[in-house]
Write a structure and sequence with these properties.
By secondary structure, the chain is an alpha+beta fold. It is about 55% helix and about 20% strand. Helix 21 (about 655-685) runs parallel beside helix 24. It starts with a helix and ends with a helix.
Length: about 800
């Protein structure tokens, strides 16, 4: 048998179904994000760990120029080393029919007659290599799919200056290339970067390292001290051109995947509480209204013997039903959206398998958080029930006193008509509640404006980088640092209008305990094509005596202009430099460090060396230009600015960058939920007053004006507060979406504020229309009756 209070519960839910649904949707979105992001974090972490373990990804990578194979035994005997594998790696250029620009590739050796101990591959199509055939390769699956290549096809590649033809016998993937990007670039593009796996003997012959290796892969024992192993390996490889061992944490592909997972984890931690706080606020308002409206009923229930705890439990159940219903809906939607987004991540990161798995604890946390929000919103009100004595509760509440506003309205009487004075009087009567509603609307608008600012910031980051920072048409990378006479050779290529050389050097920057593994870009003193800019986007003049850091890098190292950095060069003679920081540059892509080209070469004691050049190309002769560059043996790769820009924009629109679109939807839901509930609550509270006005002769429009005018005034007051809130939230959102790859500027301009304001006004108009419909359908007789 259903208890009387439970029957009342269902009647209350039916009466407030639209408000209950709006609040449940806010809860559902919060739980959806929690479940979806938790599932993505778990899926990516577990898949990454399984993939790394199953295919034995190395813990340490130790590149060298040319080291004898006998050295591998000495590395294996080092304390903390569990396994070691030597291999040959090198750069290549792939020549595709009908494509003028050569495609950069990395050639990687595989043992001839056994499985590799470390960094094994996943063969997705075709067969393994036959070491007796010198022309066989395995091709990275993503590149093959981008160009429609299959096992049995052939391709032409240039390795170490020699042009060779290869037969593709299989397609492969590797945990080493989850984030497949050409060396020196930041953004992946399946069509512009390939990996070729070849027989070790054949690849060693191609790069003249027979009987040797140029990279050692190392697996560590549990509990091994990484710094000690790295130092020992560096000592062994230094005579053979070692350029510095590094751990898996610094391996580029792994670092990008790990940063993406960490960004999702932060979002899963920080975003859902916003929704739960909004839901708690809305439930607080709704239950407050119900307790006030049902004051007489509460008194009657107490008079008939119901205890305060039973009555309080009734209203708490009302909140719990809404919260739990929204949480269950959010769990279901989180599963569906997570599975859809997991497929996107499998394309973005080259996992051969990725199964979306949610930790059951995420469901429990989502439901528990929803219950906690409901209890928080309800418990703040339910204490009033315990304080109501039956005799007091059964009496009608004392009429509101407007004595305080009499003097104010006496002055405004000549300017305001009666309905307008009623609107202002109601706001002044309950300023706390009005301020809470204004604050809620402002937060929703602020989140919307901040999200729009981040959206604009993403696009601005791309536009500024490829129009203000990088003004070249193409970038040429050389196979190794060469004489600056190469500049004259490039200038003689038909179609090249301007050549601006640069030098890129691999380094570790240290400031005390803080360090960063990256590179220094040596530029001409007053660069025109690849520039370093101030925070005001003015070009920096690069002096010979110091280093210029990107703003994001300066924050990471905790240094300012005037400080000194220790710079460990990881190539050539590997000197350790002590350099002053002479300026901070405003970079949007990556975290570079700059020096003047001459100053960098002087510090390295290698005058007149360059490792590449920025080019301005005549568009009428571009085809001829790129064909000529493709045939130059010293050229390691050519990157077109237009292709790099398209690749970066695509990357920003996927993965964590795509989450900004989710945040825009989130802001819209919060804003509408708050505005609609404010309107519905005001209508429910004042239905009897509105009926009285109708009986006294007010038209439907005038009665609606009294109610909706109050909502309109609160929204107008919330708009400037929302703009301020958006400015405060924008920096946090921009910092959350920024990474080592790009810095997202927070831009809250008039357009973002205006669009957010229109979103709030749109939500208000829709809410007002729904409430106006209820006002027009108001039963005057029923509304005038006292609920007892």
């Amino acid at each position: 048998m259903v208890a009387p209070l439970d029957r009342k519960l269902w009647r209350d839910l039916k009466a407030t179904r639209t408000q209950a649904l709006a609040i449940a949707m806010v809860v559902a979105v919060g739980v959806l994000l929690l479940v979806m992001m938790d599932g993505l974090v778990n899926s990516l972490e577990q898949t990454k760990a399984t993939y790394y373990e199953r295919y034995r990804l190395a813990d340490v990578f130790a590149p060298a120029k040319r080291a004898p194979k006998r050295l591998l035994e000495r590395i294996a005997n080092l304390e903390g080393v569990a396994a070691v594998e030597g291999r040959v790696v090198g750069g290549a250029l792939i020549d595709l029919p009908g494509q003028a620009v050569p495609v950069r590739a990395q050639a990687v050796s595989l043992p001839d007659y056994r499985e590799p101990r470390l960094n094994a591959i996943y063969l997705s199509d075709g067969r393994h290599l036959d070491p007796r055939r010198r022309d066989e390769v395995l091709l990275l699956e993503g590149f093959a799919q981008a160009h429609g290549l299959r096992p049995g096809d052939r391709l032409t590649a240039t390795m170490n200056g020699a042009r060779r033809s290869f037969a593709i016998v299989g397609l492969a993937q590797s945990p080493e290339f989850l984030y497949a990007v050409a060396p020196g670039e930041l953004t992946p593009d399946d069509s512009r970067f390939a990996v070729l796996w070849m027989s070790e003997e054949n690849l060693a012959a191609a790069f003249d390292v027979d009987g040797a290796f140029n990279e050692a892969l190392i697996a560590l024992d549990r509990g091994a001290r990484e710094p000690a192993v790295l130092a020992a390996v560096d000592r062994l490889l230094r005579p053979f051109g070692g350029i510095g061992a590094y751990t898996l944490a610094d391996q580029f592909s792994n670092r990008i995947v790990s940063e993406e997972i960490e960004g999702l984890r932060l979002s899963a931690t920080n975003v859902p509480p916003i929704f739960m706080a909004v839901a708690a606020f809305l439930l607080y308002i709704v239950i407050t209204r119900m307790v006030q409206a049902e004051r007489t009923q509460i008194g009657l229930l107490k008079a008939f013997g119901y205890r305060s705890t039973a009555i309080a439990a009734h209203y708490l159940k009302f909140a719990l039903v809404i919260a739990i219903g929204g949480a269950l809906l959010g769990c279901l939607l989180g599963l569906l959206s997570g599975q859809a987004l997991a497929r996107t991540y499998q394309t973005y990161f080259k996992f051969p398998f990725l199964e979306f798995q949610v930790d059951p604890a995420a469901f429990a946390i989502g439901i528990a958080t929803s219950v906690a929000a409901a209890c928080t919103g309800g418990m703040l009100v339910l204490r009033r029930i315990f304080l109501l004595a039956p005799a007091v509760a059964m009496r009608p509440p004392a009429p509101a006193s407007y004595a305080r506003s009499a003097r104010l309205f006496g002055r405004l009487r000549r300017f305001l008509d009666q309905p307008s004075r009623m609107v202002l009087r109601q706001l002044l009567r309950q300023p706390g509640r009005a301020f809470a509603a204004i604050l809620g609307i402002a937060v929703g608008m602020g989140l919307c404006a901040a999200t729009l600012g981040v959206l604009a910031g993403f696009d601005e980051a791309v536009a500024l980088n490829f129009s203000v920072v990088d003004r070249s048409d193409a970038t040429v990378t050389l196979i190794e640092p060469l004489s600056d006479r190469t500049v004259f050779e490039l200038q003689r290529v038909p179609g090249i209008v301007k050549v601006e050389p640069f030098r890129a050097v691999s380094v570790i920057l240290r400031n005390g305990r803080k360090s960063h593994r990256g590179g220094i870009n040596g530029l001409v003193p007053e660069p025109q094509l690849g520039r370093a800019l101030t925070t005001e986007l003015d070009p920096l003049y690069l002096r010979d005596e110091g280093i210029v850091l990107a703003a994001s890098l300066a924050r990471k190292l905790d240094v300012a202009a005037g400080a000194r950095l220790s710079v460990e060069v990881r190539e050539g003679r590997r000197p350790v430099l002590d350099l002053p920081v002479i300026a901070i540059a405003d970079t949007l892509i990556g975290a570079p460090a700059y020096m003047s080209l001459r100053g960098l070469n002087q510090a390295l004691r290698e005058p007149g060396r360059i490792s590449g050049a920025y080019l301005r190309v005549d568009s009428q002769q571009a085809q001829t230009t790129y064909e000529t560059l493709k045939g130059m043996p010293a050229v390691a790769g050519v990157t077109l600015r237009s292709e790099a820009q398209a690749s970066l924009q695509r990357m920003m629109d996927e993965g964590s960058g795509g989450m900004r679109f989710v945040m825009a939807l989130v802001a819209a839901i919060i804003t509408f939920g708050i505005v609609f509930n404010s309107a519905r609550i005001a209508f429910a509270e004042r239905a009897q007053d509105l009926a009285s006005l109708r009986v006294l002769g007010f038209t439907r429009a005038e009665a609606a004006y009294v109610l909706l005018g109050e909502l309109a005034l609160m929204i107008l007051l919330a708009l400037p507060l929302g703009a301020l809130t958006g400015m405060l939230l924008a920096d946090g959102l921009a910092a959350g979406f920024s990474s080592d790859l790009y810095s997202v500027p927070a831009r809250i301009d008039a357009g973002a504020v205006g669009t957010a304001s229109l979103a709030v006004l749109g939500a208000a108009l829709l809410s007002g229309w729904l409430v106006k419909r209820d006002i027009d359908q108001l039963d005057l007789v029923s509304a005038m009756k006292s609920r007892d």
